[in-house]
Structure prediction request, 173 residues.
Amino acid sequence: MDRAGWSYPSGELRVSDADRDRALSELTEAFQAGRITPDEFDERSGQALRARTGRELTALLADLPVADAPVARATAPDRAHRLLVTRVGFTAALAAVCFTVVAAGSALSHGPTPQQRELVRQISIRTGMPVPPGINASPGFDWAGTITPAAIAVLLVVLIICLRVHLARAGRH
Prediction:
């Protein structure tokens, strides 16, 4: 009855917990394939857990085909991982849109209006604070206020692309 395909200890040699676990896996596969009934699975599983020798384990599996070596199966990433990556991607997309709007607003802004500059000057005088230097001058183009959020938006878009590529590769494996 000893079948070489199972590689359990022969005859009266003692089996290990790993051998019992492997036998349970074989029984589970046979049950899932419809080769044994639920009652047979329960009975044989109990016997496998109580088995002490290789002969007892092989007797449980004697009427079942030897399973082929496990084939590496392509598995999709689990649902939690997919959900996390999707949420991060959505959040990054939302942040990229916000930073793009800030960068565009800064690029298109011509600074405070003359009325706003005058208001700041009057508030400064009333509160006894010094008038900020250059409040009356034209501010010019705000490079830092435009380039910084634009660069962050570009990096977020790159993150989104990387996440999509990661999900696509994980789906193929």
The chain has a mean pLDDT of 79. Residues 1-71 form one domain.
